[in-house]
Amino acid sequence: MGQVVGQIMERSKMCGVCKKRPSTRLCDFVVDYNNFMFDVPMSQQSKYETCSFPLCDECAKKFGNSDFCPYHAKLLRKIQLPEDMQLIANAVKYDDLFK
Known about the structure:
By secondary structure, the chain is of the alpha+beta class. A hairpin with a 2-residue loop joins strand 5 and strand 6 (66-68). It has helices at residues 2-11, 70-79, 83-97, and strands at 25-26, 30-33, 48-50, 54-55, 61-63, 66-68.
């Protein structure tokens, strides 16, 4: 995976947002989940595809250990569950862990 990121960064040297600073990061927002391919070994298959928009340190929006472009950062804030719904989701998720 690191080699692929390096190749993308080589082609996209400038930040796609400000177009002033060198790109040092790629947007990590998942845009597609790949289907299993029978003719490719599992070790060579990625489980998902990311946006990979080139970003500089200043333009990247951090969420935990991930970097997002401004578009996907805004979208991520919109798709997060409201707090009351997140409490229910967590209760179900963690209840299953302790069965």
